UniProtKB/TrEMBL annotation:
Chain ranges of the CobW C-terminal domain: 241-335
Region annotated Disordered, chain positions: 338-357
Keyword Hydrolase (UniProt): yes
Pfam families: cobW, CobW_C
Protein name (record): GTP-binding protein
Composition bias type Low complexity, residue spans: 344-357
Taxonomic lineage from the root: Bacteria, Bacillati, Actinomycetota, Actinomycetes, Streptosporangiales
Substrates-to-products reaction catalysed: GTP + H2O = GDP + phosphate + H(+)
Family: Belongs to the SIMIBI class G3E GTPase family. ZNG1 subfamily.
Native species: Nocardiopsis suaedae
Length: 357
């Protein structure tokens, strides 16, 4: 399923009851012809179908369709990934299901900070399942309207903010108008994630396992319109979260963007959930993809522009963020003409009050 020497990994997030387990069961039993390792990061709370029940001592179970189910309730994620690498057969993909109250952030960061894991695996994308029936109540709670405050509502908001793709599940339980309203709320938190509607988590597996968000060869890198609709005011922002986007016509210097991102995320990383971007690098015919989680980021080459309009587009999702004007000024300092000897982040974006030491 991939030409890359690295094994692509999808992180599956979503609040309790959103349908993650139903999707996992579909993958474990579907006739898709791929060897997929499904890693449960808290197996004890997950009701796997009777046909797939594990005995107490088993950690890796082979499925008849070539998938395997891995239990990590008593095993560190890095350890289970190393065990997968030690198996004689190669897996086409890995799917990691997080627990219902978990942020996908720590799992995603694993593929940046561990050198051995980063050499063997490539983060493909973060997928978040959303319950269409209860999502608006959760999001209202995060906004302080429903009394949930920093609990359930904030957790659901955070899971949506991290996503590269959102599966709006249980749409059979709401009207089309209600589904539209929920999708609008989702886009108010994360305007760049694709939204797939589903009933009973019945979706094409390729829709969640072949995103390519971090690898430079997927939709973000391959489609010039993938980041359209980022203009502020084009969607409703959740009061607990901000999304700042900017587009500059100037080509950029890759080293200057890297320097800016390092400084920017060093100062504001705890408040930055995701940073995403398409970069038009001077003298290079390819799109470059910027993807980051908190203080960690990478810039990778993607597909050629092929005569399409070149511009640099960046969006930052998080809290306590700089203004659009400040972000645009920083990126303009990264143009080849402006970049020589400057430190673009410090020249244009003031330090955050919650800056890291």
């Amino acid at each position: 399923m991939t030409a890359s020497p690295k094994i692509p990994v999808t992180v599956l997030a979503g609040f309790l009851g959103s349908g993650k387990t139903t999707l996992v069961n579909r993958i474990l039993t579907a006739d898709h012809g791929a060897r997929i390792a499904v890693v449960e990061n808290e197996f004890g709370e997950i009701p796997i179908d009777d046909a797939l029940v594990l005995t107490g001592d088993e950690e890796i179970i082979e499925m008849s369709n070539g998938c395997c189910l891995c239990c990590t309730a008593r095993t560190d994620l890095i350890d289970i990934l190393h065990r997968l690498l030690e198996r004689p057969e190669r897996f086409d993909r890995v799917l990691i299901e997080t627990s219902g109250m978990a942020d996908p952030d720590p799992v995603a960061q694993t593929f940046f900070v561990d050198e051995e894991i980063a050499a063997a695996f490539e983060l493909d994308g973060v997928v978040t399942m959303v319950d269409a029936l209860h999502a608006r109540a959760h999001l209202d709670g995060a906004a302080g309207e429903g009394g949930e405050g920093g609990g359930v509502g904030t957790r659901v908001t955070d899971q949506i903010a991290f996503a590269d793709r959102v599966v709006l599940n249980k749409t059979d339980l709401v009207s089309p108008e209600e589904a539209d309203a929920v999708e609008e709320r989702i886009r108010g938190v994360n305007a760049t994630a694709d939204v797939i509607r589903a009933r009973y988590a019945d979706i094409d597996v390729a829709g969640v396992l072949a995103i390519g968000a971090f690898g430079g060869a997927g939709r973000v890198a391959g489609a010039p319109d993938a980041m359209d609709g980022w203009d502020e005011g084009a969607h409703l922002h959740d009061p607990t979260l901000d999304s700042v986007s900017v587009e500059v016509e100037e080509e950029v210097d890759a080293d200057a963007v890297r320097e800016w991102a390092e400084d920017f995320l060093r100062e504001r990383g705890p408040d930055v959930y995701r940073i995403k971007g398409l970069l038009a690098v001077g003298g290079d015919p390819r799109r470059f993809v910027l993807q980051g989680v908190h203080t960690l980021f990478e810039i990778t080459p993607g597909t050629p522009w092929n005569g399409e309009r070149r511009s640099t587009r960046v969006v930052v999702i998080g809290r306590d963020l700089p203004s659009r004007e400040e972000l645009g000024r920083a990126l303009r300092f990264c143009s080849p003409a402006q970049a020589g000897g400057r430190t673009p982040a410090r020249a244009s974006i003031p330090a955050s009050s919650s800056a890291m030491p």
